[in-house]
Amino acid sequence: MAEEIPAMAEEAPAAAEKALAVAEEAPAMAEEALAMAEEAPAAVEEALALGRPDSPEPVALERQSLLAVQWERLQRTAESRFPLHRLLVVARLGRGAAAEEVAGYHRGLFENAVEDHSREQVSGLLLLYSSYIFHVVESCSSTIHLIIQDLASLQNQGHRMEFTFFPLSALLQEIKVLVVAHNIPTRLFPDWYAATATSPVTCPQGSTQSQSTAEVVAECLTLLLKAAACIQSFEDDSEDMNENIHTLAPELLIPLETINYLYNAEECASPEDFLRIYLSPSQPALDSGTLQTV
User: Fold this and answer.
1) Residue 43: per-residue pLDDT
2) Phi and psi (nearest 5°) for 91?
3) Which SS3 state, helix, strand or coil, does residue 102 take?
4) Which candidate, 28, 272, 231, places its Cα nearest to that of 149?
């Protein structure tokens, strides 16, 4: 123990100097800590400003109840009550059928469908040629089904009239259903319009014969997209919209050769055949499910 006392005495001055150095640095460290504490609110505000440039306020967490989420879903559903579908039809005008009569027939059909059954509003474009029509309709599935049913009865009516002593003609004959597109995201047309194709563009001779029916229908859809964009511009800018619709530019109209090709395409079904296929079961009955009688 006596030997350790001189060694401790020798180390005491160095320890004292170290303690004094720490004591001298303490005020500087305290000042640095105070400066950092003063800068902290500014750093927080700067970080919030970077997160939301338009508002320096801190971002509040938005809490929603399950009832609020369900209510938002119901509101979105109410804006479009039913899924939308698109129907493309081509047909031949009956003898003596006027363009105004054909347009009025479809307009009355759509109005009755909406009023009687509270269905989705109908939009689309009816192109009236000298001897054919090309019609695109957008609405809910029940309205599309009703239109096809009415077209089937209209065509059967025309067939029955052919065997009378004084044959008359239905408004539309040899109707073909080209496409029924299901669950389309948006409408092409804001409303339903009818336009008379006075001078449509003609295709080069034999150009459609080298294409498949699907390719020809795709070209028709491309032209319909252009026509829909043009009609939308009429609705936004022009006061005489109905007059502009009746005078669509020829390059927006589907060529008559294309309509004639689709009219004669074997892949396109009549409304009656389409309904039979649509309403028939997807799988035929198996032999084990039938009762064989002797």
Assistant:
1) 63
2) -155, 165
3) helix
4) 272
